[in-house]
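User:
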Amino acid sequence: MGKALGFAAATKTGLGSASVRLGSGVVVAALVAVNAFGDVVDPASGAVLAGPRLPEGGFARTTEILLQSASSAVPGSNTTLAVVATDARLTKAGATKVAQMAHDGLARTIDPVHTMFDGDTVFALATGTAAESADVSVVGSAAAGVLAAAVLASVRAATGLAGLPSVSEL
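Assistant: Predicted structure:
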């Protein structure tokens, strides 16, 4: 996470999940593995939660590093993979739209997102086991929200590995 200043200054993230039960009873959930080039930002406060670490503490902003053309990023070395799932009944086109809308959850929490250094992908699936049918726009909106929450959870639940610290260790 946050490799704009090189791997040695990055922050460890990991796997996060979140879910919501809609008023109709339909459940929408997300699972995400975050290994993004950009920073994870709390959409409520705008604060960087994980990103390239500065030697004096705190985080640099990846977008600012890019604008200075100072990044040492390696294309293809980052990706955020997510799946959003619901028990609603969705057509193939509906599931595709839910996946598209869920990408907004990445945009709310990762800055920058979908760069040429990333391979970000969101998949959607629907079991169709809910008693109630659900509107695709409602499910997609919920999917964006739970995916954003799952990204934040991936930062908060991470533990360091091989000298790469997590936020909880900083």
